[in-house]
Automatic annotation (TrEMBL):
Protein's name in the database: 2-methoxy-6-polyprenyl-1,4-benzoquinol methylase, mitochondrial
Bilayer disposition of the protein: Peripheral membrane protein
Keywords annotated in UniProt: Membrane, Methyltransferase, Mitochondrion, Mitochondrion inner membrane, S-adenosyl-L-methionine, Transferase, Ubiquinone, Ubiquinone biosynthesis
Subcellular location per the Swiss-Prot or TrEMBL entry: Mitochondrion inner membrane
E.C. number(s) listed in UniProt: 2.1.1.201
Chemical reaction(s) catalysed: a 2-methoxy-6-(all-trans-polyprenyl)benzene-1,4-diol + S-adenosyl-L-methionine = a 5-methoxy-2-methyl-3-(all-trans-polyprenyl)benzene-1,4-diol + S-adenosyl-L-homocysteine + H(+)
The organism's taxonomic lineage, starting at the top: Eukaryota, Fungi, Dikarya, Ascomycota, Pezizomycotina
Entry keyword Cell inner membrane: no
Organism: Decorospora gaudefroyi
The protein's role, per its UniProt record: Methyltransferase required for the conversion of 2-polyprenyl-6-methoxy-1,4-benzoquinol (DDMQH2) to 2-polyprenyl-3-methyl-6-methoxy-1,4-benzoquinol (DMQH2).
GO MF annotations in UniProt: 2-methoxy-6-polyprenyl-1,4-benzoquinol methyltransferase activity
Binding site for S-adenosyl-L-methionine: T78, D104, N134, A135
EC top class, as a word: transferase
Family indicated by similarity: Belongs to the class I-like SAM-binding methyltransferase superfamily. MenG/UbiE family.
Length: 265
């Protein structure tokens, strides 16, 4: 049946996404560097700075003044965003309590994250945890328990983005923040023409030459092209029940990436 085909297609997509991330887990940084010419590091720094994680009397949600924030970093993979958030909370907000749970569907990415955590101060600390979980069914995370939900370069890989957004809404406390950093749509025609040539022309070729893996890189480029525009994605965040401040997003580097935020009322 039609539905049968859809289910098979979805299962294949999940399998494909799994295979892509298993095959790139250890070369993950170089992959991101190729995809963004190294700029993803600056975007991630900026993302974390705008969220200002950690107990801070002026910016913390009121419920978390004493224990620090409870942060859930979905599709957190190798811990890139989690380590930055813990560093920010500790050094800028002098908060030694804020904790981050890194959730990812792929055990190979989590293993890489655990390995990298050994080079941080958080390796054996209760402030950092890794769990294997699908963003679309966060059964281990109670309702209304999270102060900040982050997802960086993850949501475009989810099979049902609307379901994941509703799960984000469920687990966040009222007043809690949903924040997403993702590749997006370039907002300048000339720049876009160059960007399309770079992503469809060069990236799969570089993937083949450097990692011997053209298919994974081709998948990543296509998943970026298929992801909704900034305004469409803002609409999806609203549809999940969030309040969206202002226009709802901030473009980074002419919209190559964008930050979206929503607040649970
Ligand atoms: N957030 C990290 C970063 O910015 O460096 C990792 C991003 S990586 C491009 C995408 C991650 O999404 C992979 O680790 C992949 O396993 C994970 N992922 C894909 N589908 C997922 C799902 N349904 N639930 C949770 N994680 C998922």
């Amino acid at each position: 049946t039609h539905f049968g085909f859809e289910t098979i297609a979805e299962a294949l997509k999940e399998q494909r996404v799994g295979a892509v991330f298993s095959s790139v887990a250890s070369s993950y940084d170089s992959m991101n560097d190729f995809m963004s010419l190294g700029i993803h590091r600056l975007w991630k720094d900026h993302f974390v700075r705008t969220l200002n994680p950690g107990r801070n009397p002026l910016t913390s949600p009121p419920s978390s003044q004493d224990q620090g924030w409870n942060i859930l970093d979905i599709a957190g993979g190798t811990g890139d965003i989690a380590f930055r958030m813990l560093d920010h909370a500790s050094t800028l907000n002098h908060d030694a309590h804020t904790k981050v749970t890194v959730a990812d569907i792929n055990p190979d990415m989590l293993a890489e994250g655990r390995k990298r955590a050994l080079n941080t101060p958080y390796a054996r600390s209760p402030r950092l945890a890794f769990i294997e979980a699908n963003a679309e069914a966060l059964d281990a995370i109670p309702d209304n328990s999270v102060d900040l939900y982050t997802v960086a370069f993850g949501i475009r890989n989810f099979t049902h983005k609307d379901v994941a957004l509703r799960e984000a809404f469920r687990v966040l406390k009222p007043g809690g923040v949903f924040a997403c950093l993702e590749f997006s749509k370039v907002n300048n025609a000339l720049f876009d023409a160059m960007y399309q040539r770079w992503s469809f022309g060069a990236i799969p070729l570089i993937g083949q030459l450097v990692a011997g893996d053209r298919d994974s890189y081709q998948y990543l480029v296509e998943s970026i092209a298929r992801f909704p525009s900034q305004a469409e994605f803002s609409g999806m965040i609203r549809d999940a029940g969030f309040l969206v401040p202002g226009k709802g997003y901030e473009d980074l580097t002419n919209g190559i990436a964008a930050i979206h935020k929503g607040v649970k009322p």
